[in-house]
Design a protein that fits this description.
Elements lengths: L1 E4 L4 E3 L2 E3 L5 E6 L7 H14 L12 H12 L5 E7 L8 E12 L5 E11 L3 E3 L2 H11 L2 E2 L1 H16 L3 E10 H4 L10 E8 H4 L1 H12 L10
Parallel strand pairs: 6-9
Antiparallel strand pairs: 1-4, 2-3, 4-5, 5-8, 6-7, 7-10, 10-11
Helix pairs in contact: 1-2, 3-4
């Protein structure tokens, strides 16, 4: 993965062009050399080895669809990471709850799906809110384990946004656990990673976990 600055100083003798106050970083994944032809051939061999009859109209194109599906699941979209000056001096939590997570367990290559809750205490800059979801996708769209995914999201945001505190919680259901093996349908896994004030200060940590749990509470309606 690379992070490319979109705005920078350009020197020409003694003259320079100042970067605008908005900071944007182009976040791109390095090419992985996906070969859909080879992937389709491998998928064909894999299914045939498992005794699947591909000589039917509905299954004939399945290896190609399978290759394209996994290529998509392993390919996060590039995005611009935009931050803005914290002009108002906002110093309370900013939380994006229930960001969709779709990833693939690297042990069985079966999906795990769920939600991520990402919150931070801003420092000098604040992050465009949609970028929290983009960062989740950046690390989810690859063979993964949930523990690493959670830590990677937290570490990356800490390094690139420099908040005073940051927390990430991921809740997911793993198909490798629900459709095979123990077949524990409905079981979910919860992981968390904390940085800065959310890790060091008990009150801040408690507030973060309380706020992300609030979305699960049933709505109370009047009579």
């Amino acid at each position: 993965m690379s992070v490319e600055p979109l705005f920078a100083h350009r020197l020409n003798g003694a003259d320079s062009v100042q970067a605008p106050p908005r900071t944007a970083l182009r976040v791109v994944e390095p090419p992985r050399g996906a070969n859909l032809v080879d992937a389709e051939q491998a998928a064909t061999a894999f299914l045939v080895a498992l005794g699947v009859d591909l000589d039917t109209e509905s299954l004939a194109a399945t290896p190609a669809r399978m290759a394209r599906a996994y290529a998509e699941m392993f390919s996060p979209r590039p995005f611009d990471l935009t931050t803005f000056p914290n002009d108002a001096g906002y110093d309370e939590l900013i939380i994006a709850r229930a960001i969709p997570v779709q990833s693939v367990c690297e042990h069985h290559l079966l999906p795990f799906v769920g939600v991520a809750h990402v919150g931070y205490l801003p420092g000098e800059r604040i992050l465009g809110l949609s970028k929290l979801a983009r960062v989740v996708e950046l690390f989810a769209r690859r063979p993964q384990v949930q523990e690493r995914l959670t830590q990677q999201i937290a570490d990356w945001l800490q390094d690139h946004v420099a908040p005073r505190g940051l927390g990430v919680v991921v809740e997911a259901e793993h198909l490798c656990m629900t459709v095979r093996g123990v077949r524990a349908s409905g079981a979910s896994t919860v992981t968390s990673a904390l940085h800065g004030q959310l890790r060091a200060d008990a009150a801040s940590r408690a507030e973060f976990f309380t706020l992300i749990a609030a979305h699960k509470q049933p709505e109370v309606r009047g009579a």
